[in-house]
């Protein structure tokens, strides 16, 4: 068999649309994961026992159920209850909920790592608890958790390939169609391997640079 990537040239536009869809879904899912993760992390560090318990159940539930099962539940199960969502919205919501469970652990660790004196000083100055969380606790926790949150983003990108199972033609879904049309799955999936490896590598580089910049800014602020 002759390896020939030129057979992909006529399909580059179609594959590019799939790649854009993947980026859009992952960007929205990252935002949803951060919001969900932050709320759950706050709940897990709350003084209210029932709130901590509820947040812990959420994390344990969505971290221990295969993502494809969660996805199928939302896409095929919810319509039985009269709730119909298109594949893109279902994918984003599913990724956000699953990603939020992992992000919450990262953000919670960042919150617990904050020096108690910082929070005590804010309380002494008269700031309300919600203000302390919004303006002090969460910004510090997010800044110190950039690298592990980057891992959450990379995991979202890799997991997004499963969205092709609910007829969403993101990058993997588009590749499956091209492979079926060209009868050249080896070249198509070789290109897909390269695409995902390149995307995750670029994300890793960007996260590394952001981490260094934030650490430098924090060090300068202390001086």
TrEMBL record:
SUPFAM superfamilies: MetI-like. It is a multi-pass membrane protein. Residues 19-207 form the ABC transmembrane type-1 domain. PROSITE patterns: ABC_TM1 (PS50928). The chain crosses the membrane at residues 20-43, 55-77, 83-103, 149-168, 188-208. Keywords: Amino-acid transport, Cell membrane, Membrane, Transmembrane, Transmembrane helix, Transport. It is found in: Cell inner membrane; Cell membrane. The keyword Membrane applies. Its main location: membrane. It comes from the Bacteria. It holds the Pfam family BPD_transp_1. InterPro entries: AA_ABC_transptr_permease_3TM, ArtM/GltK/GlnP/TcyL/YhdX-like, MetI-like, MetI-like_sf. CDD domains: TM_PBP2. Belongs to the binding-protein-dependent transport system permease family. HisMQ subfamily. PANTHER family: GLUTAMINE TRANSPORT SYSTEM PERMEASE PROTEIN GLNP, MEMBRANE COMPONENT OF AMINO ACID ABC TRANSPORTER. NCBIfam families: HEQRo_perm_3TM (TIGR01726). Part of the binding-protein-dependent transport system for glutamine; probably responsible for the translocation of the substrate across the membrane. This is Glutamine ABC transporter permease. It comes from Labrys miyagiensis.
């Amino acid at each position: 068999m002759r390896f020939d990537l030129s057979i992909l040239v006529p399909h580059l536009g179609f594959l590019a649309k799939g790649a854009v869809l993947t980026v859009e879904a992952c960007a929205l899912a990252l935002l949803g994961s951060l919001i969900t993760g932050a709320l759950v992390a706050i709940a897990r560090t709350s003084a209210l026992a029932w709130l901590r318990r509820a947040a812990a159940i959420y994390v344990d539930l969505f971290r221990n159920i295969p993502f494809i099962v969660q996805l199928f539940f939302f896409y095929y199960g919810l319509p039985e209850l009269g709730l119909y969502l298109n594949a893109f919205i279902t994918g984003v919501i599913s990724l956000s909920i699953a990603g939020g469970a992992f992000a919450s652990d990262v953000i919670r660790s960042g919150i617990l790592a904050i020096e108690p004196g910082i929070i005590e000083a804010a309380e002494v100055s008269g700031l309300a608890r919600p203000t302390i969380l919004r303006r002090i606790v969460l910004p510090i926790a997010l800044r110190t958790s950039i690298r592990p949150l980057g891992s959450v983003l990379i995991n979202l990108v890799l997991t997004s390939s499963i969205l092709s199972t609910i007829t969403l033609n993101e990058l993997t879904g588009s590749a499956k169609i091209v492979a079926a049309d060209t009868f050249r799955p080896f070249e198509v999936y070789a290109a897909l391997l390269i695409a995902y490896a390149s995307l995750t590598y670029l994300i890793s580089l960007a996260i590394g640079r952001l981490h260094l910049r934030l650490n430098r800014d924090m060090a300068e602020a202390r001086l």
